[in-house]
Amino acid sequence: MMTSSPFPDGAQRQAARQAKRDAVLLAAVRMFNARGFHATSLDDVAASLGISKPTIYHYLGTKDQVLLECVTLGLNQLLDAVAEARGKPGTGLARLRAFLISYVQVNMDDFGRCVIRTGDEMLSPESGKRFRHLKREIDTALRSLIREAIADGSMAPVDERIAAFTFAGALNWPARWFDPDGPKTAEATAEQMVDLLLGGCTPR
Amino acid sequence: MMTSSPFPDGAQRQAARQAKRDAVLLAAVRMFNARGFHATSLDDVAASLGISKPTIYHYLGTKDQVLLECVTLGLNQLLDAVAEARGKPGTGLARLRAFLISYVQVNMDDFGRCVIRTGDEMLSPESGKRFRHLKREIDTALRSLIREAIADGSMAPVDERIAAFTFAGALNWPARWFDPDGPKTAEATAEQMVDLLLGGCTPR
DNA sequence: GATGCAATATACTCATGAGTAGATAATATC
DNA sequence: GATATTATCTACTCATGAGTATATTGCATC
């Protein structure tokens, strides 16, 4: 690591700015998740960082923009998970399984949690539109992974729409109950849930 | 049906009062579900019924009490479903299946939807406590139904906690997406979801 | 060393919406 | 018929919290 001079150059200043922006965003999303969006004021967020409200406006803009940024980050993590699963070898079911496992894990994390806990009515009409659009992308990707698994015979021919909603619902829920400080790791929990979901529970 | 006299007796007045109370509650829960609790003012609810805000206070009390009443109704429907499933004959799995099917259907309806869409942070501390208590009862019942199904061998020996969360999550989600005016009935959708959940989707 | 932009603060404005006070009418009870 | 109770309204109060106007400091560039 380079010792940074007390006279930062452009790139360093840029990076510092970005770091501050990120810190504000993280503080905000954590508070939104802990107390709920409406029960969190920007003054609270600012206070938790020892700064003032206008500073948040300086880095991120209105409360609506802050929330949109949070959910966008979460949804981008999901999009990345789609791409990664798509790149994997193996049957359609194996790829679906890989995606679902990443999906739960994102939902257990700060920004993914926020995606689940945010209803579109909390955002302004325009941001809500953007939010719904991104969510639709994920849903479409999930459905096509299901379709492909059925097509190559690695998955039983179930109703694609119902399966997508059922899987998504089950795997969204940890956003509400999973405790990162609990005994089981996120990964182990994720795998157990996905295997139950795909395998069912009728005795063999 | 008896023709009601223009001079109602005590019982009739009591019934009329109850009917008004119910109407207010229904209007409120529908609006909460459509726009979100925070985006709904009691003035809006009152206006939708052609009455004024103090009338709502007369029948139901504060906004917090209105919401608590809504979720309590929803949770009581779930408690009824538990009792009904418990009374059924058949294997543990059959009883579990019966409960899960009722469970989804409640979640597709006005008050059940509200239970799902309400986070405990939306209620006052005391009401939140009551809310969590009732939810815990349902969770406990679900877990014991699972435990019993495993005990009598009709269900594979899965982790009870994980299964409860997975099932509940999957079956809570319709509160967000199910459209009662859509093509498929609530009952058919419910059965499809539950069968997928219990049976899994690996090819046979 | 003047001028401008970046970062931050203090101290406002202003809308919203929960909850209440108090009036009024109608109905019930004595 | 006098008096209490129920149902309802209009018209407030008051707290909260989003968003802004404006001041200050400091670095950056010319």
Keywords:
homodimer; 204 residues; mainly alpha; Arc Repressor Mutant, subunit A; Tetracycline Repressor, domain 2; DNA-binding
Description:
The structure is a homodimer of 204-residue chains. The radius of gyration of chain A is 20 Å and the shape is elongated. In chain A, helix 1 crosses helix 4 (63-87), helix 1 crosses helix 6 (110-117) and helix 4 (63-87) packs antiparallel against helix 5. The first copy, chain A, has ten helices and no strands. The longest helix of chain A has 27 residues, at 125-151. Chain A is an all-alpha fold and 204 residues long. The first copy, chain A, has two domains: 10-61, Homeodomain-like (Arc Repressor Mutant, subunit A, Orthogonal Bundle); 62-199, Tetracycline Repressor, domain 2 (Orthogonal Bundle). The interface between A and B is large, with 40 and 40 residues. Chain A binds a DNA duplex (30 and 30 nucleotides) through helix 1 and helix 3.
Order of H and E elements of chain A: HHHHHHHHHH
| Overall CATH architecture of the largest domain in chain A | Orthogonal Bundle
Compute the number of helices of chain A: 10
| SSE-based structural type of chain A | mainly alpha
Low-pLDDT parts of chain A are 1-5
The largest contact between protein chains, plus residue counts on each side, is: A-B, 40 and 40 residues
List the helices and strands and how they pair.
2 copies of one chain form a homodimer.
Chain A: H1 10-35, H2 42-49, H3 53-59, H4 63-87, H5 92-107, H6 110-117, H7 125-151, H8 160-172, H9 174-177, H10 186-199
The structure holds a DNA duplex (30 and 30 nucleotides).
